[in-house]
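pasting for the record
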Amino acid sequence: MATPLTAVSRSDLLGVIMREHREGLVSYAEKMLGDRGLAEDIAQEAVIRAWRSIDRLLGMEGSVRGWLLTVTRHLVIDWVRKPHARREIAGDAYNDPVAGTDGTGAVHDRLVVRPLLRRLSAEHRAVLVHIYLCDRTIQETAGILGVPVGTVKSRQHHALRKLRAVVGPEAT
């Protein structure tokens, strides 16, 4: 059970937050990121932000855990959106979000996008994932996949055409 922050001396607040919420924050971030080390960094930043906002936390009516989970979620989103998160590392395999679970709980992706992407070949799916889900340019996608720019354009065109045929004219 969570200790009410108002029942703790100001000097002990950071310890209480760390003891009661750190592991939950790490677990939550790890489920979204799939990387324990990065999840620990994100959780640490969330705790630091809690410490910096301690006066606001003491005066709020909501749950401290809820506030911490929201901050953690925002930190994960910010990290994923940063350009460094999009760079490919030499030797790493392409992580196809359709083939495995990403842990984010994105209901729309699971219910709509993934089944549609499964209907495409791996080559066509990879192009759409890089361009639309990872927000990469055609040139960046070509470099990552190791194919000419024209091939990426062609795969994009054919993949979108196939998806339009599957979804039907009412969705476009």
